[in-house]
Amino acid sequence: MPKPSAEPPRPAPPLDPAAIPRLPAGGTVVDLGAGLPPARLLHFPQDFPGWHTMSHPMAHDMFSPARPALSPDLMIRAYAAGIFPMSDGATHPGIFWVDPQRRGVFPLDGFHVSRSLRRRIAKGGFEVTVNRDFRGVLAACGDRPETWINAEIGGTYRALHALGYAHSVEVWMDGELAGGVFGVTLGAAYFGESMFSRRTDASKIALAFLVERLRAGGFQLFDTQFTTGHLCSLGAIEIPRAEYRRRLQLAVTSPADFFAVDRRAGDEDGRARA
Fold first, then answer.
1. 129: which strand partners?
2. Could you give the percent of the chain with pLDDT greater than 90?
3. Distance between CA atoms of 199 and 19, rounded to whole angstroms?
4. What is the domain partition of the chain in residue ranges?
5. Which CATH number does the domain 1-274 belong to among 3.40.30.10, 3.40.50.1100, 3.40.630.70, 3.40.50.261?
6. What is the mean pLDDT of residues 239-264?
7. Cβ partners under 8 Å of residue 261, min gap 6
8. What integer is the mean pLDDT of 111-137?
């Protein structure tokens, strides 16, 4: 199993159910394309609980100079409410909240490891680490012609990582970062944000080790936001928004420990050699 590169931090406590904000009704339903399900777009920050409406532009038109910066606290509240931020590109300043009508999740007892992936893992020749290069994984996930991670969103993930809420799983081959995945933890919920692969099967290996870690830590929900053919081949499914919200509230108000495997092993050297 992968290990963190430093002493595992204490897990953050689960949320109080009363702290989960309610989302507003309405919102523009749009087709995000690329085979994704319809989603409700919410303005930022106008439609976020606790903010007063400043104007009524389209979700992508963020011209108000009074718009507050995205913060770790705001991001945590958003995830607890069942929404997540996106932007139109790496250099686009706008941010909007997305609320899919059908949500992608990985059943933690239904992750599918194919025979070929089992053989690849058994073959070795790679190293898996946790939180050794969070910035590198985040940068690689955003280094694409089309990305939803702009500078503000990326900076907020880095802040969440510093606070112990965001984690990366890295796969190294021949001493280089070959693939990885990063996400946010809140109670017993893990919100998978993005993954990348520079070598064959590197992202699949990262996911396999991540799922094992989540199982060991008592996590109840692995949110993938959307599903793709690649994720479905590994066991991801879609569930209705109402069912997702039910699972979400149970998960974010329950305890879990992302570093449980490391505490049990008593090994804090940060590496698991394949």
1. 3, 170
2. 51
3. 42
4. 1-274
5. 3.40.630.70
6. 93
7. 1, 3, 212, 213, 216, 217
8. 93
DSSP designation for 196: E
Q: Is the four-CA dihedral 215, 3, 133, 119 of positive or negative sign?
A: negative
Under the phi-then-psi rule, with left for phi > 0, alpha for psi from -120 to 50, and beta for the rest, what region is 12? beta
Nearest to 205 by CA among 169, 167, 257: 169
Tell me the average pLDDT across 136-152: 91
With a CB cutoff of 8 Å and minimum separation 6, the contacts of 70 are 44, 85, 95, 152, 153, 155, 156
- Structure confidence at residue 149 (pLDDT): 92
State phi, psi for 74 to the nearest 5 degrees: -65, -40
CA distance 265 to 119: 25
Give this prediction's pTM. Answer: 0.81
Alpha-carbon span 135 to 154, nearest angstrom: 9
Contact by Cβ (8 Å): 24, 261: no
Burial per residue of 75-101, b for 16 or more beta-carbon CB atoms within 10 angstroms, e otherwise? bbbbbbbbbbbbbbebebebbbbbbbe
